[in-house]
Known about the structure:
The protein has about 475 residues and is mostly helical.
Amino acid sequence: MNKPIPLWxxxxxxxxxxxxxxxxxxxxxxxxxxxxxxxxxxxSGLIAALAGHSRxxxxxxxxxxxxxxxASTAQAIIILLLIGALAGSWMAGGIxxxxxxxxxxxxxxxxxxxxxxxxxAIVALVTGSSWSTTATIGIALMAMSExxxxxxxITAGAIISGSYFGDKLSPLSDTTxxxxxxGNIDVIRHIKYLSITTIPAFVIALLLYMLxxxxxxxxxxxxxxxxxxLPDVYNLNPWIFLAPTATILLITRKVxxxxxxxxxxxxxxxxxxxxxxxxxxxxGMYQTIHDALLTQNQPNTNNETVEKLLxxxxxxxxxxxxxxxxxxxxxxxxxxxxxxxxxMTRALVSEKSSDVATVSATAVSAITVNVSASxxxxxxxxxxxxxxGSFSDRNLSPENMTRTLEDAGTVTSPLIPWxxxxxxxxxxLGVNAFTYAPFAFFxxxxxxxxxxxxxxxVKIKRSNLQP
Length: 467
């Protein structure tokens, strides 16, 4: 038991997971998240448990790790359910249709992608939450995308890019504060240093979205159908925007997510009763509200494409995502309890030989934990604990470590389908994470920025310099 864990044994469960997930996605595509990915995660967790048992680790200790992991996601699970209800009430209340109706009138394919990224960046910056951003503005932008002739997976990438840019630079963000805490530095000091790599990455992403926009130059017939059909189904007027404005304002005022989302649901119900009264009364008030919050909400527009864009699944639509999160926490909890995550991280530490190698090892470690433990908080905490001494030994100020944790840990989490962030974002946007990941340019560029800036010694702060 006291012998070091062989590296191959630590990697084995992760290798099985990745190979099985890759094969599964090739076989069933986007349906993988409907159950088969969850089974693979649980099976890989059992393989990790067998490997841990061979090392003398008791099942009870592994289960304690699983329970701890699942408990850490309790709030996220409640938020997921509330967001399902929020999406349903905002759709049935005419809030999202109003955003689509007025938005498609103002937006043009030639600038839709960069503007979408910027809008999401602003909302995430003031709210401190990428999740709240995609649950509100993101839903409306996704619904505008296809009518404007822009593939939804590209729009999803732009939304993810903007949302995580704003989240990273917001002093209200939990991950930003957590990363700063790992280096024992002030969050503003962390954000200032973080912006050195973050802003160039976002500018490059915007330029790429602008270049891609040249391929989308005119509105499609679906856009015209959408604008024609929406007023026939919903009572649309600017007063509806009071509900989302008030909800976002609560989030910016640091009201916790659960109360703020609950207010948003109530506001959505009020819009249903006040503005969509005819539809509510024709189907029965209780039944209409019940269906919007809990199950299926699909308006009758006599247009299959438009109906698909406007359909929501309520709380029930979030259950597959919750199942995926629980399965991922089972795998990650066993991997951590058995010491396999720490073993993989130590392998990276032992191979460092320079400043660039230290930053690279930290980034790779954060991404590895995101893949194996399926949680962005662990992707910040575990490498943060493991590498803090390495940065100090190399005379690098703690900002270098905290920046790398954010550049590699926070932003890569939504690119992994079984990560809590990837599961949430793919469900919220209706696009598999593997599908939108190639177009989440900011998220892909950020880890490379940390390494490149260290490689070329661009504004690198040393410990012997005054902050």
